[in-house]
Specification:
The complex is a heterodimer of chains A (432) and B (481). Chain A has 432 residues and is α/β, with parallel strands linked by helices. Helices cover 21% and strands 41% of the residues of chain A. In chain A, strand 1 and strand 2 form a beta hairpin. The longest helix of chain A has 17 residues. Chain A is globular and about 70 Å long. Chain B has 481 residues and is α/β, with parallel strands linked by helices. Chain B is built from 12 helices and 24 strands. Chain B is globular. Chain B starts with a helix and ends in a 5-residue tail after the last helix. Classes of the chains: A alpha/beta (432), B alpha/beta (481). Chains A and B meet through strand 18 and strand 19 of A and strand 22, strand 23 and strand 24 of B.
Chain lengths: 432, 481
């Protein structure tokens, strides 16, 4: 049996799910679904997904025939919060925005949070919505645009500093059955505003979960945005997270993606630098074990001159884990005086772990400074020996060195409480 | 700036120096490709039955293949039925001495600066000169023969050493490896064969000059080099082609086979017609080159200087199968006007303790697109593999592009892989420094570019280094971005 015929059945099932949307259908969704059908689920020949066996995982684990609106039995989200971190909390349960568990502590003047569907109906979100996702290029972006169940719309007014960060929890409760959910976020940062967003996903239960999450983030002039994504789900989470960020002139962006667990995680990170004098830092850390597959695809697209971007992704692969990294830097013809740097460093701890990395530079402007570097290796034997000769046991010495390797990626985190929490997660993983 | 532009104009508008064509009566196959064409070629060359079968098999698998779409190059669709697949200079029997060579041909070589007679006497290089797909003269054959080295045209090898050809043909690049390799396998006209016996260090650099001459003729060369245990050979390949308006297709295959402790060094200077400054004409260069380090401690080293061709699609690769084997790739690729190059290498680490090194320098000017595409793959059992890759790009002018697509796939925890890439232009401070010391702008750029490419040029044998430097200077002097 060929995979092509198998694909077809999954896609057909998805079509059935799409038909069930009936009431919510509109031309945007229909176009997105047509794009999805045209693209189909990616096979192993697909350049963008060749290392990520997502189609196989979906075929094996899910029944897409209907949109599941599984009810969750959780009674509290306290245990999922970040200790001691004062933050606004937005909770999605099985892809649905839950007012009940969410808690907004910042005043209305600082931040406006509303349901995306109703914001679209009253046309508030319309000028921003669906402007950037290119449904014709990625099947999962298209799938999400066609099938998204629920989402939120966050606005930060101009000249506003949101003091307390927003923590988004994606709770996927697959205790009773497998789960498919598609969630959506639209975030607009006004001119000269400042905002921090933290995102965490939590899976409950043993059944497989397929979660697509699309975020559109628009950063207006002179605004500053910090973004932290934490992926440490112990469940069977298959996640495709599409993040699309559009930066205007003189804006600042800091991102950090921490991937520790999950069955199959794919992060599509697309940053369009559509203004001059922008500054962007992207950090990522993937510490993988078990059979986890984590795939980070980033695109930094410099459209305008005089901007700076720096990207650092590091990974440690243990057991049978598989890490995939693809970093693209585009410097378009008029984006002169661009400085764009990228670095990807990996450590493999076992012979059954794999890393596939492809740092990619595409440059059409001459007056630029761009570089990328990429390494794969193991811990320095001499460094390990140095520590052991001073009485530190092997495991501890290794953990110490790995920690030093990983810690660099936390450089851009400003919030001390958050930094301590992330630091704790990393140490815990490395000291097992 | 005005002066810069003027200098740039002068240099980039320079017409192709080696452009001319010589009137030789050619013996051609009719246009188009079919089983009959394959049979025609095979019959023309008096080939044995098994080779015809091999060609037909390749042709049949080619029919089921599609042209690769992944390279970062754009060109109008090639009509494979509009190509003459075989053309040979008219000749009854193979020449045994230079006196028998057509005087027109000798003139051609003289224009290229590689007069056979001169070379034979002075440089000690055995030249297997190829014009329009048939080998016309081979020198120093007897001298090599004493050592047991076989260096001859492919068709001669098929007649005289069928057992070697049968054994090694397609052993590194299978006939159905890719679209162009399959096409080549079906219709290859001639090429070079080189066999170095056990323990022999080939006393001279072997070289072949390729040249495309008759209009509308695709050139399908095939080179096979086999180095037996403990042997060493350095092979030079250099090419220039006359000016033509219609695009010409070139799909060559090069196979290198290195046994235990053997070493093969393969150097290329490629200066085929790149098309005029409006992007009209030029050679399509779709080449499959691969070396197999079959034995332990073997080494294969590729060095290439690519300045010509409208489109280059070329990935000289090393399959490091033997333990402790080593692969190297040094490349300078220069593109100007509307040239497009998608070139790089593949290093496949299979054996233990294998090492590879990649140094790629791309220079783009005008409206050209220059891509590096490379793969470093470390398989599960390849412990202690080591790779270092460096690919730098230099941009001249704001309408060209430089692209890097490195694939790094590692499945072994003891592997150490490093890759780094940079893109920049010639620094104004560097130019200023030279100007300040009385070096004019043109000379300064030549100096800086030569310095930039030095790491690769150093790898070339003496005879080639001079030509390569001349080529670089010719294409790029004065092109200040």
């Amino acid at each position: 049996m060929s995979t092509a015929t198998l694909n077809k059945t999954v896609e057909e099932k998805m079509a059935l799910a799409f038909d069930q949307l009936s009431g919510q259908k509109n031309s945007n969704r229909e176009e997105a679904f047509r794009d999805f059908q045209k693209l189909g689920l990616p096979g192993n020949k697909s350049e963008e997904y060749r290392y990520t066996p997502i189609t196989r995982a979906l075929e094996k684990n899910f029944n897409f025939e209907q949109q599941s609106f599984a009810k969750s039995t959780i009674t509290s989200v306290e245990e999922f919060l970040i200790p001691q971190l004062e933050s606004n909390i937005i909770v999605f349960i099985n892809g649905i925005y839950s007012k009940e568990f969410s808690r907004i502590i910042s005043p209305d003047t600082e931040i406006k949070i509303s349901d995306l569907q109703s914001s679209l109906e009253n046309k508030e979100a319309l000028p921003y919505f669906d402007k950037y996702p290119k449904t014709s290029t990625d099947p999962f972006v298209a799938l999400n645009s066609a099938l998204w169940q629920n989402g939120i719309f966050i606005q930060v007014p101009a000249q506003t500093k949101v003091v307390k960060p927003v923590l988004i929890l994606h709770v996927n409760d697959a205790k009773s059955s497998s789960l498919v959910s598609h969630t959506r976020l639209l975030l607009v940062l006004g001119e000269s505003s400042e905002f921090t967003l933290i995102e965490k996903s939590i899976s409950i239960g043993e059944n497989p979960i397929f979660h697509t999450f699309s975020e559109e983030i628009i950063i207006k002039e002179n605004a500053s945005f910090d973004y932290v994504k934490i992926q440490n789900d112990e469940g069977k989470l298959h996640q495709v997270a599409n993040t699309l960020i559009n930066q205007s002139s003189v804006s600042k962006l800091n991102t950090f993606t921490l991937t520790l667990d999950g069955a199959l995680i794919r992060n599509n990170f697309n940053i369009v630098i559509d203004g001059e004098n922008c500054e962007s830092h992207f950090y990522g850390l993937y510490l993988l074990k078990g059979n986890t597959v984590a795939d980070n695809h980033t695109v930094v697209d410099h459209l305008k001159p005089n901007s700076f971007s720096n990207e650092l992704y590091k990974g440690v692969m243990d057991n049978n884990a598989k890490g995939v990294f693809n970093g693209k830097i585009f410097v378009r013809p008029h984006a002169q005086k661009t400085n764009a740097f990228q670095s990807n460093r990996n450590i493999l701890l076992t012979d059954t772990a794999t890393i596939n990395t492809k740092p990619q530079l595409e440059i059409w402007a001459d007056d630029v400074k761009c570089s990328h570097g990429c390494t794969t290796g193991q811990l320095d034997e001499e460094a390990v020996f140095y520590l052991r000769s001073r009485g530190i046991p092997l495991d501890e010495a290794k953990a110490m060195l790995l920690y030093a390797f990983a810690f660099e990626t936390l450089a851009a985190i400003k919030n001390e409480v958050l930094k301590k929490y992330l630091d704790g997660l990393i140490s815990k993983r490395l000291n097992k | 700036m005005a002066k810069d532009n003027q200098v740039l104009e002068e240099i980039t508008s320079k017409e192709y120096e080696h452009g001319w064509s010589v009137d030789l009566a050619a013996d051609e196959s009719p246009k188009g490709l079919s089983e009959d064409t394959v049979r025609f070629i095979s019959k023309k060359k008096n080939e044995p039955e098994w080779l015809l079968e091999w060609r037909l098999k390749a042709y049949r698998s080619w029919l089921n293949m599609t042209e690769p779409k992944w390279p970062n190059v754009k060109y109008p669709k090639i009509n494979y039925q509009d190509i003459i697949y075989y053309s040979a200079p008219k000749k009854k029997t193979g020449p045994s001495s230079l006196d028998e060579v057509d005087p027109e041909l000798i003139k051609t070589f003289e224009k290229l600066g590689i007069s056979l007679t001169e070379q034979k006497r002075l440089s000690g290089i055995a030249v297997d000169a190829v014009i329009d797909s048939v080998s016309v003269a081979t020198t120093f054959k007897e001298k090599l023969g004493e050592l047991g080295v076989i260096f001859c045209s492919f068709s001669e090898a098929v007649k005289e050493h069928p057992e070697l050809i049968k054994k090694y043909l397609g052993s590194v690049v299978p006939m159905n490896d890719n679209y162009y390799a399959a096409l080549n396998s079906a219709v290859f006209s001639d090429g070079s064969f080189c066999y170095i016996p056990k323990g022999v260090r080939c006393p001279m650099e072997l070289s072949t000059y390729f040249r495309i001459n008759a209009a509308n003729t695709g050139q399908f060369e095939r080179t096979l080099i086999v180095a037996e245990e403990g042997s060493y050979v350095s092979y030079l390949e250099g090419c220039t082609a006359p000016m033509r308006d219609e695009n010409q297709l070139h799909a060559a295959v090069v196979e290198l086979y290195a046994m235990k402790d053997a070493q093969i060094k393969y150097s290329t200077v490629q200066n085929w017609y790149p098309g005029d400054k409006n992007g009209k004409g030029g050679i399509y260069n779709f080449v499959t080159k691969r070396g197999l380090c079959a034995g332990d401690h073997s080494k294969i080293s590729w060095t290439q200087v690519e300045t010509g061709s409208a489109i280059t699609w070329k990935y000289p690769s090393c399959v490091l199968k033997g333990d402790f084997s080593m692969g190297e790739f040094y490349s300078v690729a220069v593109t100007n006007n509307y040239q497009q190059a998608d070139t790089g290498t593949k290093m496949i680490h299979i054996g233990k303790n294998t090492r590879s090194r990649i140094v790629s320098k791309g220079i783009s000017a005008g409206k050209s697109q220059n891509s590096y595409r490379g793969q470093v793959q470390v398989l599960k059992r390849a412990s202690n593999a080591r790779n270092f890759s460096q690919c730098d790009s230099l941009l001249m002018g704001d309408q060209c592009g430089a692209h890097t697509f490195p694939y790094i796939d590692v499945e072994n925890s003891t592997a150490k892989i490093e890759h780094e890439a940079t893109t920049s232009k010639i620094g104004e401070d560097q130019i200023f420094y030279c100007l300040q010391r009385g070096i004019d702008e043109e000379a300064a750029v030549a100096l800086i570019v030569n310095g930039y490419a030095k790491e690769v040029l150093n790898q070339l044998p003496m005879e080639f280094a001079v030509e390569a430097q001349k080529l670089l200077a010719l294409t790029l002097e004065g092109s200040v971005g």
